[in-house]
Amino acid sequence: MFQGTLREVVDGTEGGVASVVMDLDGIALESYAKPDSDLDIMTVGIELSVVLRSARQAAEALGAGATQELAIVADKMTTLVRQLNANYFVALSLAPGGNVGKGRYLLRTRAPELASELG
Amino acid sequence: MFQGTLREVVDGTEGGVASVVMDLDGIALESYAKPDSDLDIMTVGIELSVVLRSARQAAEALGAGATQELAIVADKMTTLVRQLNANYFVALSLAPGGNVGKGRYLLRTRAPELASELG
């Protein structure tokens, strides 16, 4: 269902490793990881859902409105998250030095398509 | 102490509103906000510290190493966070449409100076 789009996002981003569509409780709908990746994108999604919930609470407390995007740059992995609707998000993990701008662009432009599939 | 650098970061970023150096418990060391801003950067920092702690825990759980940067894009505010050392971070809030790339660049290039002042 989302497989083609997730693959397009991962393969279209230099350094892209894996991508997942999940709900805010960390339950994955679908994911795609590069064949040579040993990244457990399910675990990534579960951890991210905690961060995203805390970011949403912060934005709400600050009157900053709905959270659209989140990016976490760590030593060994960069993760981009984009909210699809009130309950779902899509995440993309990149290796260090990956093309973050391209990843953000692909998530942003593919989000409406993913959101419409969520109904 | 940090005032000049914080001001430089805010004024040097198109759409920059306020900046703060805080510890991970949300206690501010110093902040600067544009005179016409009604943003309470102290409250922003406190909320961010919660998000940053959760991002650090996630990165640790995933074996992704130390968290260097965090970005939260919400409807009415974008906030960039950069880790300075194990205990302190610097944050910059921008109005929607602000120059996120420039803000990230300024935080990254000024971080060593801020970190060295922390001792």
Give helix and strand order of chain A, one letter per element, not per position: HEEHEEEH
Helical fraction of chain A equals 40-55%
In CATH, the architecture of chain A is 2-Layer Sandwich
The CATH homologous superfamily of chain A is named: Dynein light chain 2a, cytoplasmic
Number of helical runs of chain A?
3
Task: Write out the strand line-up for the largest beta sheet of chain A, numbering strands in chain order.
Answer: 2-1-5-4-3
Query: Biggest interface: chains and residue counts?
Result: A-B, 29 and 29 residues
Q: How would you describe the oligomerization state of the chains in this entry? A: homodimer
Strand content of chain A: 25-35%
**CATH hierarchy class name of chain A:** Alpha Beta
Mean pLDDT of chain A: 92
Uncertain runs of chain A are none
Overview of the molecule:
- Two copies of one chain form a homodimer.
- With 119 residues, chain A is α+β, with helices and mostly antiparallel strands.
- Chain A has three helices and five strands.
- A five-stranded antiparallel beta sheet of chain A has the order 2-1-5-4-3, sandwiched between helices.
- In chain A, β3 and β4 form a beta hairpin.
- In chain A, α1 packs antiparallel against α3 (100-118).
- Chain A is globular, with a radius of gyration of 13 Å.
- The interface between A and B is medium-sized, with 29 and 29 residues.
